[in-house]
Amino acid sequence: MAFIQHPFDSTLHLPAILRIETLLIAFSFALAICLVTRIRTGLRWKTARAGVGQEPPIAPYWIPYLQHLPSFLSDPNSTFESWKRQYPDSPFTLVMMGTKFHVFNTSTTASYIFSRSREFVFEPVVASMMDNGMNLPQSDRPKFQLPLKPASMLSKEELGSREFLSANHSVYLKYLTSATLDDVMRIYMDKFHLVLADLCNINSKEWVTVEYHELMRKIIFETSAVTFFGTRIQGLWPNMWEDWKVFNDASFVGVRSNFSFYLKPKSFRARERMLQAFEKWCGCDLGDWPESEGIWNDKWGIRMNWERELLGRKHGFTLRGRACIQASFLFV
User: CA–CA distance from 84 to each of 87, 89, 108, 327 (Å)?
Assistant: First the structure.
C-alpha cells in the first residue's frame, strides 16, 4: 500500500513557517523603531533664528545611533545637498553616532570663518581630510596633528609637527595673498584661455549645445591643475577631470571615514589613479629654483608647490604622503 503525502501538509512545514513568522516580527519591530525614530526627530524640526544663540536644528533621521551616517557614507554630496534644500535659510545639524556636525552653507559665514585663519583652529579639519579623504599613510599622520600643549612640554616629534604645520600655512599665505596672488591670477588667466581653446572650438561659427555648469567646472578644474602643477601633470594623469569628479563626489570636507570609498569602488580606483599620478609628479629631482626665475614653470607649476614638496621631504614624509599633500591642494 502506498501513501501519498499532500504537498501542503502544514505539519512538515511548521519550522519554515515559524522562521518566516520570526523574520516578519523582527522586520516589523525594526520598521516600527525606524518610524518612531523618524517621527520623534521630525517633531524636533525647528529652523534656528539668526542672532538668538540657538543650536542649528537637527535634521530628522530614521535609524537610532547610526543616525545620518548610512546616507553620508553612501553619498556625502547628495546628503548635504538634499538637507540644504530642506533648510534653505538656516544652518542645520547632522548627527552620526552621537557626534553633531553643524553645517553652515552661506557665503557670508564662509567668508567670516576663512578670513580669520588665526582665530579658528582648522588643523583638525585638515588632519581629518588628509586621513580619511586622502588616506594619508599611517606613518605620516602624526605630522598633521596639532599639539596644543605649551612648547616647553612638546616632544621632539610634536615640535616637528608644529613646525611643519606652521611652515605649510606660511607657504599658502605667501602665494595666495597680496601682490603674489595677483601674479598667480595672471598666470591662471593665461592658462584659462589655453584650456578653453583646447576644449572648445572658439573660432567656429556653428552653434553647439553644452551643459554649461559641467563645462565650466571642467574648464576651471583643468586650468587650476595646469596653473598650480604645471603641464607635466597632464601627461601623468590623462583622465584627471573624470577621476577628480568621481573622487570629489565621494568625499567632503569633514569626511570622517574611508568607508565611503570602499562602498564606491569606482571612486576608490579614481583616488588611487590620482595619487599614483602625484607620486610620479613628486618623485623626480627637485632641483633649484631661485626666486629670481619667477613663480611658474612647466615642471612644478606655481613655485608654491615646489616649496611644499621641499618642505615635505625635509620633514620626512613618504612618497605617498607627499603625493597626498600635493593632491589635497585641489580642494583649495
Answer: 5, 9, 16, 28
Distance CA 198, CA 34 (A): 52
pLDDT per residue as tens digits for the range 157-171: 888 888 999 899 899
Q: Between the CA of residue 55 and those of 52, 91, 93, what are the distances in Å?
A: 9, 9, 8
Gap between the Cα atoms of 122 and 114, Å rounded: 9
Q: What is the pTM of this model?
A: 0.73
| DSSP-assigned letters across all residues of 141-210 | GGGG----S-GGG--HHHHHHHHHHHHHHHHHHHHSSHHHHHHHHHHHHHHHHHHHHHHS-TT--S----
Instruction: Tell which residue, 270, 223, 224, has the closest CA to residue 243.
Output: 270
Residue with cell 544652518: 91
How many CB atoms are closer than 10 A to CB 182? 9
Between 114 and 311, whose confidence is greater? 311
Q: Are 44 and 58 in contact (CB under 8 A)?
A: yes
Pairwise CA distance, residues 127 & 145, whole Å = 6
Q: Cα separation of 258 and 216, whole Å? A: 29
pLDDT in tens, 19-71: 787 888 888 888 888 888 888 887 766 655 555 557 888 899 988 888 888 88
Cα 155 to the center of its chain, rounded Å: 31
> Which three three-digit cell numbers place residue 127?
588632519
Cα distance between residue 281 and residue 27, in whole Å: 53
Name the pLDDT band for 180 (thresholds 50, 70, 90). very high
- Within 10 angstroms of residue 167's Cβ, the number of other Cβ atoms is 15
Residues in the chain: 332
Burial class (CB within 10 angstroms; exposed 0-12, middle 13-18, buried 19+) of 269: middle
Q: Confirm if 161 and 124 have CB atoms less than 8 A apart.
A: no
Domain boundaries along the sequence of the chain: 55-120, 126-331
